[in-house]
Specification:
The chain is mainly alpha-helical. It has one domain: Arc Repressor Mutant, subunit A. A two-stranded antiparallel sheet has the order 1-2. Helix 2 packs across helix 5. The chain is 68% helix and 7% strand. It is built from 6 helices and 2 strands.
Length: 147
Amino acid sequence: MPKSTKDDLELSALLLDAIPPLIRAIRAAMRNYRGARFTVPQFRVLGFVSLQPCTGKQIAEWQGVSVPAMSRMVGALVRRGLLRRTPDNADRRQIELRLSQRGQTEFARLRHAIEAALAARIALLPAAQKRALGTGLMTLGELFRET
């Protein structure tokens, strides 16, 4: 692993400093959305499950919370009709979580509302900063993409 430089550390500090205001903007967009009410962790769970079926344990590990805490959140999302539990085809003892049709619809609507709110802020940037932001975000996505 290459040794971090001073510039690397400064960039990592900028990244960490950028996250809280971004999360606040996402929360504000979620509060302003007139559809179903979600917390940021619930939105993240729906987003994770939207990518592939998974178990509650897998989501708990990804979110960095205990399995019982995730079970409570999953239970609430199941009761709201947003997630459904299905037996795993490979191992019937395992229960997979999938978005229900309603979950898919609500997640897509909320994601669109958040994107629109973020786009309104991005629209304030000059074109050169928009291009730089796009390049930086694509680089971040590649750098932190799970393999």
